Amino acid sequence: MSFQKRIPKVHTLSSALERARKYCAYQERSQQEVRDKLYDLGLHKNEVEQGIVILIEDGFLNEQRFAVAFAGGKFRVNKWGKVKIKLALKAKKVSDYCVRHALGQISPADYEKTLNKVLSDRKKKVTEKDPIKQKYLLAQYAIGRGYEPEMVWDALKMNE
Q1: pLDDT digits over 116-139, tens only?
Q2: Is residue 141 part of a domain?
Q3: Region of residue 42 (phi > 0: left; psi between -120 and 50: alpha; otherwise: beta)
Q4: Within 10 Å of residue 43's Cβ, how many Cβ atoms?
């Protein structure tokens, strides 16, 4: 039995757009995700770009709407900080404007409350007895979750 690389079925623009509409209707998508999907369907560069324009005009694709939904979900569900969200959006090739807009939708009060919750939940799991090392481990964890270092250290000072 030989393994061959799967050759994508070449779709017409109209059949690929139908698949892309379903793909976008299922959940919000970035332009790059849809662009990759259209390439996977066997379309060429000019057809892909034409398809992106059609999907934007039809309201199936909206980069700003995607960025707000993505940032909100990662913040509320995964408790990610703004740094990590920004990097993830950049990896999806979302524009700076949309990234700033999406991060601006996160309430500063909710952000601070979530950071404190992340720190207190983690503190329950840290077995280190030395308070300095414990503080370092908590800060390292929160910074790794994408929270700004200055904000993390301020929150740790407040909770002493």
Answers
A1: 999 999 999 999 999 999 999 999
A2: yes
A3: left
A4: 24
Contact 38, 66 (CB under 8 A): no
- Whether residue 81 contacts residue 146, with contact meaning beta carbons closer than 8 Å, is answered with yes
For residue 115, being part of any structural domain is answered with: yes
- Can you give the residue range of the structural domain that contains 30? 13-57
**Residue 112: C-alpha distances to residues 88, 89, 107, 117, 119 (Å):** 21, 21, 9, 9, 11
Q: Cα–Cα distances in Å, from 43 out to 16, 18, 47, 54, 141?
A: 8, 13, 6, 14, 43
Sequence-distant (≥ 6) Cβ neighbours of residue 70 within 8 angstroms: 28, 30, 85, 88, 89, 92, 102
